[in-house]
Amino acid sequence: MNFTGEFNNSIDPKGRASIPARFREVLAEVHGDERLVVTKNWEDGLTAYPLSRWDEVKANVDKWPAGPKKSAAMHMMVSPAAVCGLDKQGRIQIPESLRAYAGLQKEIVVVGMADKIEIYSQAKHAEVTRSAAALIKADPQFMADMGF
Prior knowledge:
Order of helices and strands: EEHEEHHEEHEEHH
CATH class: Alpha Beta
Low-confidence stretches: none
Shape: globular
Strand order of the largest sheet: 1-7-8-4-3-5
Helix content: 40-55%
Number of helices: 6
Structural class: alpha+beta
CATH topology: Chemotaxis protein chec
Strand content: 15-25%
Number of strands: 8
Largest sheet: 6 strands, antiparallel
CATH architecture: 3-Layer(aba) Sandwich
């Protein structure tokens, strides 16, 4: 079982966002830990990793040789990362700095991406979806090769 689906949701003024029940089940049953590590992504949104998956991502970054790309990855993804536990209502508290980066106001979209979760403003999610569609339309063989 993994994270799949797109869920329109909201974020409250305190920065709490509900994680869909299906995703909470995956966290508990598959990962054995309901904490998420939330960080920036390169599409002006946020990515939330189960703690065990984050450890793998961080280990991969640590393996890179010192240099500008590693430094950029550290500044973009590792440094702003925050561990967010679920409250009794199934919400995570997203830090202000991450909410500001992603432009999260009230209406958000929580997206399952197999081994991670992405969180976008509704406008940014529409933009990301349009860009993905354009990329696929430019190379339809890619989708056929993937079995779609």
